[in-house]
Amino acid sequence: MAKGKQKQGRGRAAEPVREQVAGGTAELVPDRDRPRGFTLLIDRAPQSHVDLDDPSHLDFAYQRRLGHIADLVAPPGKPVQVLHLGGGAFTLARYVAATRPRSTQQIVEIDAPLVQFVRRELPLDAAWRIRVRGGDAREGLAKVPDAWADLIIADVFGGARTPAHLTSTEFTAEVRRALRPGGFYAANLADGPPLAHLKAQIATVRTVFPELCLTADPAVLRGRRFGNAVLLASDRELPVAELTRRAATDPHQGRVEHGRALDDFTGGAVPVTDASARPSPAPPPSVFE
User: Fold this and answer.
1) What's the CA gap between 258 and 237, in Å, rounded?
2) Mean pLDDT by 10-residue block, N- to C-terminus, for the chain (289 residues)?
3) Domain assignment present for 79
């Protein structure tokens, strides 16, 4: 892994770095335990963590679960084509570049000032094949050629909520169009009790993809607190056993629901269409305290 360009990025900072972006106040907070590690917050809501010295390090639990999915989409080390809907600090794109050299990646991020801020403060390695496009995630997805991506990751939040037009069956059909046969679609979803949004998203994605599984903190799945869940979908059999093993051994253990257990969890939830779509629920203030 080439690190030459990364060394030009930020060194140890005593104080956070702040800048106004389209989505609010962006803030990079130094990691006390990692000399070149930083957490990106927007309006005090944690978005991403990056370690410039070790892009393969994933600090947030949901990002570790997305990393597992990136690991399992193809044999270890094989280059892949990845579309990231939502940029943040480009954490998962950095991870794929570090673990799968020569991969080709596209990032679609609507917040142009945020992209400029991250590029300046946490620069990408010039050798990585990562293209960052400005614009709306769904509009960017529509420009991707048919069957281009091995992996599509949706991690889009505006004001800590997923926009409504990224939650529908029509959007999910566009995702499948852009995926190669056997490709993976992974969506970061946020919800709290009674988990109506999460269950509706499972029902929605199920109308397009035959194979699904869900991984999250057990407390989130039991409806005890607000949090993130990662939904994985494909047209091929999923590596549920390996994903379960990895989630169970993470620092913040996760649980994987699949098959009958996922059907029971989803209950009678109704798929979301463009006509009925609503943004994901806003997290309670206590989540970021």
Assistant:
1) 11
2) 41 77 96 96 93 97 97 98 97 98 98 97 97 97 98 92 97 98 98 97 98 97 96 98 97 96 97 98 78
3) yes
Q: Which domain holds residue 198?
A: 58-277
Asked whether residue 124 is domain-assigned, the answer is yes
Among residues 89, 109, 95, the alpha carbon closest in space to that of 46 is found at 89
End-to-end Cα spacing for the chain: 37
Domain tally, the chain:
1
The residue assigned the tokens 């093993």 is 245
**What does DSSP assign to residue 286?**
G
CB atoms inside a 10 Å sphere around CB 222: 12
Supply the CATH number for residue 241's domain.
Answer: 3.40.50.150
The residues with which 104 forms a beta bridge, in sequence order, are: 81, 129
Side-chain-side CA neighbours of residue 213 (13 Å): 21
Is the residue at 51 inside a domain?
A: no
Answer yes or no: are the C-beta atoms of 144 and 110 closer than 8 Å.
Answer: no
Comparing C-alpha atoms, which of 237, 164, 224, 167 is closest to residue 194? Answer: 224
